[in-house]
Input
Amino acid sequence: MKVSYDEGLASHVGSESCVGVREDSGEALTGESAGWVLSSEILNVRDADAVMSRGRQHRPIRHREGRSGPAESQTPGTHRSISRVRRSLLSEGVIIVRYADDFVAGLQHESDAVAFHEELRERFRKFNLELHAEKTRVIEFGRFAAERRERRGQGKPETFNFLGFTRACDKTRQGKFIVLRRTMAQRLRAKLKNLKEELRRRLHGPVREVGRWLGQVLTGHYRYYGVPRNYAMLDSFRQEVRYLWHRVLNRRSQTGNVTEARLKRIADIWLPTPRICQPYPERRLAVMIQGKSPVR
Output
């Protein structure tokens, strides 16, 4: 992601961080296209162009300055500041991960992250856009973030939300640093609310039809959020769906009452159990070419 494993400063810009830009991205309610961008309009928003014009200049490899450089302010002071930031970033490197209009930038030093944030704000103004102060922030994140914050008497490293996941600093049992990914609580509540309303509309639908539809929803949810160390959130989502369906089944008639034993049989048939669908990034991205040379 945008993690810098050396220093670990990150600047996160969420998909809703631009004032005046409509949020058209979302997750499909059925399981067929979970996590896809539902509207093609989001791919053409101006803030994405503004970000990528900066990101192309700040690639961590093949650093070249001069061609297609970022737009700069006309004031001499800002011009010198941007030039200084550009030279610093090109020497240290920066990682930018972007999907549609949502992106995260990772830098090694706090001063670079703050300068990048300020320069990005100026860049967006040229597109008549504005960064949301509460949803665009610079945080300390990375392999040594927890250790350094503990020495300073601070709490755990801050988390951030990106592409439906809440990401936090964590360690394996062997003490290796990893980025923990958990389903966003806000996204989970919103999805359950939509499911509740849809189940009410399907109140008198056949159990077979409703069960097949809920199975597709769960399957799509598992495929997108089924990442390592997120099993508890997947199981929690299935239990909530099971509870909502139980309430709907009990309201189909005044005398109807679906017992727990019957509900268990229905859920075992139509509601798939959680499973981790995506391996760890190092396994998913590891490619072996002819001659068995690793490609990273």
Remarks:
- The two ends are 14 Å apart (CA to CA).
